[in-house]
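User: For my dataset I need records formatted as: sequence, then structure tokens, nothing else. Please produce one.
Assistant:
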Amino acid sequence: MKRKDSGDAETEDTEANLLKASDGKNAETASHGEDLNAKRQQILTGAGAIFAELRYEGASMSHIARRSSVSKGTLYNYFDSKAALFAAFVKQKACQELPHTFSSIRKDLPPGKLCLVCRPGYHYFHDLT
């Protein structure tokens, strides 16, 4: 209900009513967000398998959609292009793998030995392209 005695009071009542109306949808919205994240992860997992199998050049959005068990339309709802999907895949893998890699490296290693330690991670990502 809006109060008409003051502009500020009217705004406060309107905001309060909007908050009340949205309270019942918070769980639904959270569930929807989890579904979107799960679908995105499903696509990234399928894309990873295709990139590993066919490499970037051989992979197509059709291959990735089929492996991910989604339609091409759904795939394009999440990623505008194969390049965008590949970038998201590499970013996810880097965020998963690099902290572990670097946390196990001694801080006093000379640069030459540091390169030897990091080389397997570099080759993993380089071989995908």
